[in-house]
């Protein structure tokens, strides 16, 4: 969803679409060109760099949730 919200869509006005935040990992070329169309450009390293903060946040939230669940369980089992 963040990729869609931060996309740079310029094909309707004779430009290129860029997807990715903060780094653009997919560029779809468009517009009115005289020569052959260029294929889409995909950069796997930029995609990994874009996903890294999301993965780290997911791991931290999972560990925090597991810690909270363990504290609640230990509190109820000791009573």
Total domains: 1
Number of helices: 2
The fraction of residues in strands falls at 5-15%
Sheet with most strands: strand arrangement: 1-2-3
**Average pLDDT level:** 84
Instruction: Report, as a whole number of angstroms, the end-to-end distance.
Output: 44 Å
Low-confidence parts lasting 5 or more residues at pLDDT below 50? none
Order of helices and strands: HEEEH
Oligomeric assembly:
single chain
So what's the overall shape? rod-shaped
Describe this structure in words.
The structure is a single chain. The protein is mostly helical and 79 residues long. It has one domain (2-78). The protein contains 2 helices and 3 strands. The protein has helices spanning 2-5, 44-78; strands at 17-19, 26-28, 41-42. A 3-stranded antiparallel β-sheet has the order 1-2-3, with no helix packed on it. It is rod-shaped and about 75 Å long. The model has no long low-confidence stretch (mean pLDDT 84).
Produce the secondary structure layout.
Elements (H helix, E strand, L loop, with lengths): L1 H4 L11 E3 L6 E3 L12 E2 L1 H35 L1
Using brief descriptors, characterize the structure shown.
single chain, 79 residues, mainly alpha, 3-stranded antiparallel beta sheet, 2 helices, 3 strands
In short:
The chain has 79 residues and is mostly helical. It has one domain (2-78).
């Amino acid at each position: 969803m963040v990729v869609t919200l931060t996309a740079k869509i310029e094909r309707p006005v004779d430009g290129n679409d860029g997807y990715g935040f903060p780094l653009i990992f997919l560029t779809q070329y468009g517009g009115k060109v005289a020569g052959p169309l260029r294929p889409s450009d995909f950069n796997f390293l930029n995609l990994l760099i874009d996903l890294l903060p999301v993965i780290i946040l997911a791991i931290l939230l999972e560990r925090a949730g597991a810690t909270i669940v363990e504290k609640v369980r230990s509190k109820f089992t000791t009573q």
